[in-house]
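Subgroup meeting minutes
Present: P.N., E.W., G.H.
Scribe: E.W.

1. P.N. recapped why we're keeping a running log of single-chain structure predictions: easier to compare across weeks, and new members can see raw inputs and outputs side by side.
2. G.H. added today's entry (251 aa).
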Amino acid sequence: MKKLLMLFTGVLMSIQVLAFNFSVAPTRFEVSLDKIATNEVILMNNTAEPMRVSTFLEAPDGYGKYNLNENIKLYPKMVSIKPGGRQIVRFRVKPSPNMEPGEYKSYIVFKEKEGQIKKVETNVEETTGIGVQIKMLAEIGISIYGTYGEQIVKGNLSNFAVKLVNGNNVIMGCDLVSEGNASLKLSRKLEILNKAGKVEKVYDTEFGRSARNGKSRIDNSMTVDNIKGKTIRVTITDQLNRVLYKGTHTL
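Output recorded in log:
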């Protein structure tokens, strides 16, 4: 999938982190392909200027013939949004004849029209004699997952590792192998243990999602205050509540 944020500049001397000009909600859909369904996405203009946003579909890596590009109809394909305003984009998902059981996926991508690029000027002439202009074009993709027929959820997890960065940033990662016809949707329980081994606090969060089939990897982080030096117990389960990993770590 294309990058969500693209910076175009002749000479890049300074990069500033900027909010997207527009936002999208929700950012993921899970739909049944056993029937025709229509869903809505809300686009919000976060600027003081009018903008136009185009919509199109992209096929994710690893889904091959199991993408939904031919099953999704978007309307409208171009929207105009007033400053601070909202617009709705609808999409209809229609199953194909003789679909194979399993999981399908596509991205709906929302992209600003090039004529509405936000310009950000950074003047560094005093120190370098060079003026810099950064042009930003926002592009946001959301995931559409579809399920048809029987879902075979099968796979394993290996090489799970935990490390602490900057005192409160818990980074976790693992390798995954999916052997069914659907991705592994993983949940994480992080329990903070006291010196007696009793649970002081529990965090239940999403951990990530594997590829539909084959090898993939998950790496993510979560912020937990006052966790340095603590012992934690981590349990990773799939959507069938099967435990794929359980272990303790001292940070």
